[in-house]
Write a structure and sequence with these properties.
4 strands; elongated; 11 helices; about 250 residues; Alpha-Beta Plaits; alpha+beta
Length: about 250
């Protein structure tokens, strides 16, 4: 079945989501988050885009940006390619890290533009990671209220008020409002319980207990770990927890 054509934005502004392949984590430690932010900043001048918002979650990323010199697909190839090259070298792995096709939606008016920014910044709240937007370290919210380093804040703040101090106050209040906004997001499959995950591991690996996979030779063990990750809905952390195998080994398999 052919893929649906990507919807083009008349304004050049897009809300974008990238997710780890098989929903695996794309950030394992603080250095990874920092590197990704450096990467999106690195290509701003080369690709000529303006970045209005971002939020880096464990296994996916939200952006709000306006394309410039290069088309959206080229921008995303640059960002993904650079980060994946660095990530694979760090973790001694090969292959894709991101799902093969990022998702995007056009943002054509100021009202929806502000809704998308709030939606992006409230991702950690809705995921239960924090209770207030400003508490989350890996989103662009604090660049608006404190100091802009990567984000182009002028466009957004000028929508709210020509007076910068009032605009920042309005921005903070708006981004912390309770709401039922619905924007582009990833369709999440059913999250497996540990009991369901154990059943899958035992069936795939043909073992009586999930920790028995530790007894296999390296080649066989890695073959089964790869099969569990690629064909089922188990997270890296869940596999590590149930098999007792170090997450670094699970990640590389």
């Amino acid at each position: 079945m052919p893929r649906k054509a990507r919807q083009k934005s008349e304004s050049g502004i897009y809300h974008i989501i990238m997710r780890g392949i098989n929903r695996q984590n794309i950030f394992e430690d603080e250095e990874d988050y920092i590197k990704f932010i450096e990467t999106i900043n690195q290509y701003k001048e080369k690709s000529g885009y303006e970045l209005y918002a971002y939020c880096l979650m464990g296994n996916h990323v939200h952006f709000l940006l306006k394309i410039g010199k290069e088309p959206l697909e080229q921008i995303m190839r640059r960002i993904c390619g650079s980060y994946v090259y660095w990530y694979n070298r760090k973790y001694d792995r090969i292959g894709n890290l991101f799902q093969d096709r990022f998702k995007s939606e056009p943002v054509e008016n100021d009202a929806y533009f502000l809704i998308v920014i709030r939606y992006i910044h409230q991702n950690p709240i809705k995921a239960g990671l924090e209770t207030r937007v400003g508490q989350y370290k890996w989103s662009s919210y604090n660049e608006y209220v404190d100091e802009a380093k990567v984000i182009d804040v002028d466009f957004t703040l000028n929508i709210l008020n020509n007076d910068r101090e009032k605009a920042i106050k309005s921005f903070s209040e708006y981004n912390n409002e309770l709401n039922e906004d619905v924007c582009l997001d990833m369709e999440e499959k059913h999250r497996l319980t540990d009991e369901e995950a154990r059943t899958i591991i035992k069936k795939v690996c043909k073992v009586k207990n999930t920790i028995d996979i530790q007894k296999f030779d390296t080649l066989t063990r890695n073959k089964y770990l790869k099969k569990i990750k690629e064909e089922n809905d188990l997270s890296i952390r869940q596999i590590e927890r149930l098999t007792g195998i170090n997450r670094g080994i699970v990640l590389k398999a």
